[in-house]
Design brief:
Layout: H1 6-12, H2 15-18, H3 22-38, H4 44-63, H5 75-87, H6 100-136, E1 141-146, E2 149-155, H7 156-181, E3 183-184, H8 200-206, E4 211-212, H9 216-221, H10 224-250, E5 258-259, E6 266-267, E7 275-276, H11 278-302, H12 314-338, E8 341-342, H13 344-353, H14 358-367, H15 372-389, H16 398-404, H17 411-416, H18 418-424, H19 433-447
Parallel strand pairs: 3-4
Antiparallel strand pairs: 1-2, 5-8, 6-7
Helix pairs in contact: 3-4, 3-6, 3-8, 4-5, 6-7, 6-12, 6-19, 7-10, 7-19, 10-11, 10-12, 11-12, 14-15
The protein binds arginine (ARG).
Amino acid sequence: MTATDKIADDFNSSISVDSRMYKQDITGSMKHAAMLAACGIISESDADQIIEALEGILNDIDSGALAIDMEAEDIHMFVEQVLTERIGDVGKRLHTARSRNDQVAVDVRLYLKDQSADIIAKLKKLLSVIADQAADNVETIVPGYTHLQRAQPIRFAHHLLAYAMMFERDITRIEDAVRRMNYSPLGACALAGTTYPTDREMTAKALGFYGATKNSIDSVSDRDFCIELLSALSTVMMHLSRFSEEIILWSSWEFQFVELDDAYTTGSSIMPQKKNSDMAELVRGKTGRVYGDLVATLTMLKGLPLAYNKDMQEDKEMIFDAFDTVNICLDVFVPMLATMRVKRDNMYRAAQEGFINATDVADYLVKKGMPFRAAYKIVGQLVAKCIREGKVLETVSMDEYKAISELFDEDLYEEISLETCVDKRNSAGGTGKASVLSQIEYIRSIAD
Ligand code: ARG
């Protein structure tokens, strides 16, 4: 066989992507060597030498004393090559009863378990920041919207907590995916298992898995865990993107509901009045990448016959990109939200201006005995009058009210105040105070 063409070699190589799994690769090899010795497949002294040398390689890569050779085909080949350079023929015994197919499958799972734990920790930090902002804004009243039209007054805390519930579900989605991923494919070998008397449960336990996978063909062909994590990460991004979109709207001159800290905005090079929410926009924009990673991975897998095919090498580029993107987005989003200033007066004014308590005026008349249809008509006239005269329902005088209906009385103002409207909605999960406080408590219990 002649040597592979240089361009083909580069094309085939995955080291630039998978070198980041060196720790998982070396750890997997150490546990594999220990198992080989325990099962009498290699000698104890060979295993000791291999494990010691692997530990040295790990330390040297960590410290920078050993640079990863980007000319190697992948991280598995690189580590094995250094191992044999360092301890000679003994190193060549490591690759007994395994193949790169089960090796890469176990490395990726180990790596993604760590990555998932990091993302969950960051999502919990986000939950605690949302809880803090919510706690500061229990008494902040803002219009709640449907169709982007002012609909009913709500506590701003309640609105923020809606996002906390989404991110809480995201955490459980990632945890679920990790639970299903938490079985070790190591020892499945190329696809059919091995003739050596291995102990797959031993390596599985030593690497922190619940146990070993049950079918060797599936073990080396399965990338469902990538799909599940990519789907969970896409959902995280979709939530971050919706939240970002609202923050962008709220910080616009038209809304002026919030102000982002200068640390998380940029100015314009030619328009000095501008403060752009670039970070939030980028989070929204990067959502597309993560969806792309999901679709690319699904598409890569869809026509693959069993078992391993080189196509599958592409999985890492996509799943790593998705984790990197969510990581960086959370790194910037969390402090951006923590330092966001809420302009309570503007929110309150917007809640007053939209006649969002009109239904409550009608309900008031109904309680005093008027049929709802008649009350509805009167309130319609009132709103028209307010618009004509530049007033809101709270600033119409009692004389004016009485001129329209004798049923109006001084208690009306109390009844239609935004505070009352919000407090009255005390159904479970509603915007009433008790519900909002218990939501904050719930979110804090998950965040800590
Ligand atoms: N670099 C490969 C990957 O990431 C490792 C597995 C190679 N196996 C093989 N039979 N060529 O998928």
